[in-house]
Amino acid sequence: YTLFFFSVDHSFVNFTTEGLQKVVVSLVGIVVDMLLVCNVKRAEMRAFRKVESLSQDLHRENQKLHDVSLTDGLTQIRNRTALQLDSDSYLDREVTVMMLDLNDFKNINDTSGHEEGDRILRETAQLLADSFGRTHCYRYGGDEFLVILPDVPTSAFLERLESVLEARPQVMLNKRVAQVSFSVGYVYAQ
After folding, report:
1. Cα–Cα dist 146/149, whole Å
2. Which of 160, 186, 184, 185 is nearest to 102 (CA)?
3. 98-144 confidence digits (pLDDT tens)
4. In angstroms, rounded to a whole number, what is the distance separating the alpha carbons of residues 168 and 181?
């Protein structure tokens, strides 16, 4: 109607009832079209916000999965997969590398039970994380831990190691309390 009304044969000067009807119908058509377009746009914006929110949720969940895949489930420190990914970050830096192994761990599991063995592993991992930082500690094997400490002088490393050795977990073995012992080796490289 709008196109018909504004065609060459019609003008505002010759205003008639029929012309008024056409104007009203045109205006109503325009308003209806605008309302439809606005509703479609609002729905599009809601859908866009929903997709954006879902995308952010997916990103957060993927980050959680990534973090879980690099963390040992029992000790909550980094695992061997994380070590492989982190290895390049230690290149061309001064590092101290330490391997720590729990002595006679099988006996702890056999005598005191696996639950007690798990507690010892968790406490050892926490000691290492508290002393050297969680991002530099890895559970390398069953009762083996690896620490790679970059850019720290040997004297500072040894102080931290001493605090770990002093705070060793205790375990009940053969009806007596004993401190868990560690075998530790380390090397400093430039």
Report:
1. 10
2. 184
3. 999 999 899 888 888 899 899 999 999 999 999 999 999 999 999 99
4. 7
The C-alpha atoms of residue 51 and residue 46 are separated, in whole angstroms, by 9
Cα torsion through 176, 110, 103, 143, rounded to 10: -130
Residue 87, amino acid: S
CA distance 177 to 25: 94
**Would you say residue 189 has pLDDT above 70?**
yes
Contact between residue 149 and residue 161 where contact means Cβ atoms under 8 Å apart: no
Distance (Å, rounded) from C-alpha 147 to C-alpha 129? 9
Query: What is the per-residue burial (b if ≥16 Cβ within 10 Å, else e) of 32-46?
Result: eeeeeeeeeeeeeee
143 vs 99: CA distance, rounded Å: 11
Residues 28 and 30: their CA atoms lie apart, in Å, by: 5
Q: Which residues contact 23 (CB under 8 A, 6 or more apart)?
A: 5
pLDDT tens digit string along 29-41? 888 889 999 999 9
| pLDDT for residue 60 | 95
In angstroms, the Cα distances linking 44 to 51, 52, 173 are: 10, 12, 67
Mean pLDDT of 47-65: 95
